[in-house]
Write a structure and sequence with these properties.
The complex is a heterodimer of chains A (270) and B (327). With 270 residues, chain A is α/β, with parallel strands linked by helices. Chain A is built from six helices and 15 strands. In chain A, β1 and β2 form a beta hairpin. Chain A starts with 8 loop residues before the first strand and ends in an 8-residue tail after the last helix. Chain B is of the alpha+beta class and 327 residues long. Chain B is built from eleven helices and 14 strands. In chain B, the strands form three sheets. Chain B has an eight-stranded mixed β-sheet with strand order 3-2-6-7-8-9-1-10. Chain B has a four-stranded antiparallel β-sheet with strand order 5-4-12-11, with no helix packed on it. Chain B has a two-stranded antiparallel ribbon with strand order 13-14. In chain B, a hairpin with a 7-residue loop joins β11 and β12. The longest helix of chain B is centred in the last third of the chain and has 20 residues. The radius of gyration of chain B is 22 Å and the shape is globular. Chain B starts with a strand and ends with a helix. Classes of the chains: A alpha/beta (270), B alpha+beta (327). At the A-B interface, β13 of A face β4, β11, β12, β13 and α9 of B.
Chain lengths: 270, 327
């Protein structure tokens, strides 16, 4: 691992797009000649001078010079970040974390489960798989959201459907929605998945419990089930102690963990 | 031939070092305190050096990982690292030397924390205690107390050897006694990590939560509690955007420590207390091969609820042993 001096790299916001009533997508560009390599599933520490920094997942595949992040306006820092305009400076440190197990995906049936803003980091994986269709056997994407308006990246579903089956559900809706209604487990009931699939989920911990009850010991092996954990992260390099779960650091051992890694970890799935 | 210095010359030695660097030495700062009367302060000639003190209020961590430390400053879109000043920490006890040693290892791997190591490299470490100089420890100079008047200097680095050339040190034939610190059977119990790892459901954590105030003082006074927060501070008196990225002490005992927008992952005090012990006696041994305690006793002295970590450990060990005897 490289040494760390906590000094971030200055970059620019080159595009901004409203993704839902409280979420924004930002495209970020580093200065020419700055090397920035990442794996899908890694995150960056994003800061604006005077407003501290927050860990944010990368939402694009590592195929271009720019990269994108998705931000939900929630706290002081994220509120500042969503107020940034095209041309504004933004400061980036990273990438940090392990990323998704891409090597294990070869020849596999892959199931992606995204609840709410859990779609942000998973979009990086979906795009990566879209660029590398030959490596996997099939791809199923379950997306759940509170309402149709907060279904993030819905414009991209058509593109995703070229290489994946995409199923969506919303908790509640108006009369114009003709899709599935109910929480994300509704999709599990309606759509069978192949035994031996590799499953990756990101969302609130409560859905992880449903996934474990539903699939572990039946169609998914414990080491083929992956969860992304969210914790407070301040340093990104396993020092500050904020993100620990028992013996694990979410920022360096994760944020992507297989179920067999955290099965007996009393803090991970709390 | 040993390099010997008389106790009444130690003050002069400390002052001689202050020509090149800020010297922090133990002084009686709180004569009426029921906690600790001594602190490391920037030493000057009107002060009285107290080399044989029970313990200081704050550990030497306060100089290597300051309570509030500027990592860098932004001004006009440029970041600038702070100038690290030269320091001497004079008169560290045996336990505090261990604290410095372990703290340095914590910030040296698996990634190197450049900022911490820069501060450490600019700091001269001078220990003083009556034990023989421990071989495994890194110090620049160690002053071993032989009797009420005499200290023998042991150099640990080239910088330490240079100090021994000071005329305050005399060459003298002297028998240097071997004084080892007694092995602490509780803290060196090899089963301790396993016992604590498996004690999550032990009633001790709820019992402690009933009396603990969750104030975090045990972390602040610990030579090895190093969890930190990183935040920005802004200078509104300047026209240009000028902000500083600060690293400040934090404590895993505080309610906000694991709080996110998605919820508080350690909302119960009993969970936070367990994590405090888990870090010191499970996570740190696994990561670095040593526990996060040097037995300096500061957390016991300062705890407003009079919690003694040794009682907690003893209860866990005792229950573990009696459970194993039964099975």
């Amino acid at each position: 691992m490289k040494d760390h001096n906590y000094i971030p790299q200055k970059a620019k916001v080159v595009e901004r797009e409203s993704l839902s009533p409280d979420c924004l997508g930002l495209k970020i560009r580093f200065p020419k000649n700055y090397q920035f390599n990442f794996h899908p599933g890694q995150f960056v520490m994003v800061s604006v001078p005077g407003f501290s920094e927050v860990p944010i997942g990368i939402t694009t595949a590592p195929d271009k010079n720019d990269f994108e992040i998705g931000v939900r306006s929630a706290g002081t820092v994220t509120k500042k970040i969503v107020s940034l305009m095209v041309g504004d400076d933004i400061y980036i440190n990273g990438p940090f974390g392990n990323g998704f197990p891409l090597q294990k995906m070869k020849g596999k049936n892959i199931v992606i489960i995204a609840a709410g803003i859990g779609i942000f980091p998973l979009r990086s994986l979906i795009r990566y798989l879209g660029n590398n269709k030959k490596i996997f056997k099939s791809l199923t994407i379950f997306v759940g959201s509170k309402c149709p308006e907060s279904l993030i990246y819905k414009k991209e579903y058509k593109e995703w459907e070229k290489f994946a089956k995409v199923y969506t559900t919303v908790d509640s809706c108006g009369p114009t929605w003709d899709g599935c209604i109910g929480n994300i487990t509704t999709l599990f009931d309606k759509n069978k998945i192949n035994k031996g699939s590799l499953m990756i989920a990101c969302g609130p911990p409560i859905i992880y419990k449903s996934i474990i009850n539903r699939y572990v010991g039946k169609s998914i092996a414990e080491n083929d089930l992956y969860f992304m954990l969210e914790r407070k992260m301040k340093c990104g390099v396993g020092k500050c102690q904020h993100c620990t779960c028992g013996e694990l650091y979410v920022c360096t051992d994760g944020p992507v963990f297989s179920y067999d890694q955290i099965k007996y970890n009393t803090e991970a799935l709390s | 031939m040993a390099k010997v210095i008389f106790e009444n010359n130690l003050k002069e030695l400390a002052l001689s070092l202050s020509k090149d660097a800020k010297v922090f030495a133990p002084v009686k700062t709180h004569p009426n305190s029921t906690y600790s009367q001594y602190s490391f302060v920037e030493f000057s000639k009107e002060m009285e050096l107290v080399i044989d003190y029970p313990t200081t209020n704050l550990p030497p961590k306060e100089f290597l990982l300051p309570p509030k430390d500027i990592l860098f400053t932004y001004s006009n879109g440029q970041s600038q690292s702070p100038v690290i000043e030269k320091k001497v920490i004079f008169g560290l006890s045996y336990e505090d030397l261990y604290g410095v040693e372990k703290l340095t290892k914590l910030f040296s791997s698996p990634i190197k924390d450049d900022h911490f190591l820069e501060i450490k490299d600019s700091t001269l470490i001078i220990g003083a205690d009556h034990f023989s100089p421990p071989k495994s420890l890194n110090f620049d100079l160690y002053l071993q107390k032989i009797n009420s008047e005499i200290y023998v200097g042991h150099a640990g680095t080239k910088k330490g050897s240079q100090i021994l050339k000071n005329s305050l040190f005399k060459n003298q034939e002297i028998k240097i006694p071997k004084v080892s610190k007694k092995k602490d059977l509780l803290l060196s119990n090899p089963d301790l990590p396993k016992i604590i790892m498996k004690s999550k459901d032990h009633p001790v954590w709820n019992d402690l939560a009933k009396i603990c105030l969750g104030c975090g003082i045990c972390s602040y006074v610990c030579p090895l509690c190093y969890c930190f927060e990183i935040d920005d501070e802004i200078d509104i008196t300047k026209d240009d955007i000028c902000s500083t990225k600060c690293r400040t002490w934090d404590s895993c005992m505080l309610n906000s420590f694991a709080e996110t927008n998605a919820g508080n992952f350690r909302g119960e005090l009993s969970e936070r207390i367990y994590n405090w012990y888990f870090h010191k006696f499970v996570r740190m041994p696994k990561e670095y091969g040593f526990s996060g305690c040097v037995d300096c006793n500061r957390c016991v002295i300062f705890c407003p609820a009079k919690i003694n970590y040794r009682n907690t450990l003893m209860r866990l060990v005792k229950d573990w042993e009696s459970k194993n005897e039964r099975s």
